[in-house]
Amino acid sequence: MPFAKITNRFDPFWMQWVGTVRRGLSSVFFDGVCLGLIGIWWSGGVSYHGHIYLKHGADPRRAVIIWALLGYFCFKDLRKTSLMLRAVRRVGALLSIPTFRWSAYLVCCLGAAQLAVAQVLAMRVTLWDVGIFHQILWSLVHGLGFNSTLSGAGDFLSDHFAPS
Q: CA 70 to CA 62: how far, in whole Å?
């Protein structure tokens, strides 16, 4: 029997094995990046040479959402092999049950309220944002609209709304 026929006979097995390992490693890498970004978010940033990077919580949150959406829509194999995507799909299925959905809303609202109170008591509230919103509230009460001299645009709505 020629050598080419022997290797061709085993090629599908090897290709299948290599594909499985590659899919497994890609899902481990994907889950590692997701968990790393979530860890950066929860830890409050990355300290490097006395400077804290990614300290704003929205940056790692946005990154993990974009990363998860790319993984879900661009790589169909990750939908089945990634632990993070399977957990999100399982929670999504559970949210279709009304009692679970409302209890999840309640837990999220109570957790957010508890976190907000803890941040205020720990003095971890960014005073710049508090000053902007305090000034907007004062302007609204006195009939001046969403005016703020602290924000760059002057009008809070035009600062956050850009139709172009």
A: 12
CA distance to 4, 38, 110, per residue, from 10 (Å): 10, 42, 58
Which residues in the chain come in under a pLDDT of 50? 1-18, 21
The answer to whether 114 touches 56, Cβ cutoff 8 Å, is no
Contact 107/58 with Cβ under 8 angstroms? no
Asked if 132 and 150 touch (Cβ cutoff 8 Å), the reply is yes
With CA atoms as reference, report the closest residue to 82 among 137, 149, 35. Answer: 35
Q: Are 139 and 145 in contact (CB under 8 A)?
A: yes
Q: What is the DSSP letter of 135?
A: H
- Letter string b/e over residues 100-113, b meaning 16 or more CB atoms within 10 A of that residue's CB: eeeeeeeeeeeeee
Strands 46-48, 51-53: pairing is antiparallel
